[in-house]
Amino acid sequence: SFTDSPVILKILQNWVPRVSHYFDKEHYTYVGHQIVIQESIEHFGAVVWPGALALSQYLESNQEQFNLKDKKVLEIGAGTGLVSIVACILGAYVTATDLPEVLENLSYNISRNTQNTNMHKPEVRKLVWGEGLNEDFPVSTYHYDFILATDVVYHHTALDPLLETMVYFCKPGTVLLWANKFRFSTDYEFLEKLGNIFNTTILAEFPESNVKLLKATVREN
Length: 221
Known about the structure:
By secondary structure, this protein is an alpha/beta fold. The protein has a single domain (23-218), classed as Rossmann fold, CATH 3.40.50. Helices cover 27% and strands 27% of the residues. The protein is built from 6 helices and 11 strands. It has helices at 50-61, 82-89, 103-114, 133-136, 159-169, 185-197; strands spanning 7-8, 15-16, 25-30, 33-38, 72-76, 93-98, 123-126, 146-150, 175-181, 198-206, 211-218. β2 (15-16) and β3 (25-30) form a beta hairpin. The radius of gyration is 16 Å and the shape is globular. The model has no long low-confidence stretch (mean pLDDT 90).
């Protein structure tokens, strides 16, 4: 199912040299906006991973192909919030989700980088993969145009609930964009499972960073 050949890209050094002396802040520029991200050393989800840089860069450069303006966008495993902030700058209605312990830092980054602008106000919500999906995000109310996920696949035990979550939110018409660093056999196994369920295309590869960016959509019978 991986027919089209992906474009080969390099993650650009989009971050700005640090002006502040704080070790925990990273400065980026996307879509003409300066974005300041506070990382947290306590949590995996609170560091900017390469997949987030790859997807942010791709969304910025492919606005015609993936026009996020006024679209409903859900990010799962939003981490520091960089991708959600970029989607917000591109005009989307964004819901950024992650585990409870990550939400404080995520909310801080998102509000700090999107306040005082004319963007749609993003929402930050708890989402534990595979848990309470029907209760928290009932299908009757929630339909997303785009599901964004970056570096959600690594050595962890929640891969089946993650896949279940992707399947739950991917309705006909929804586009899932998933960027990930591929290191382990489990990463490729997940990719294979995804390809068995969805129409899957590799849009771009960033070989220096071992990142692949995939697009997946529901198979319509």
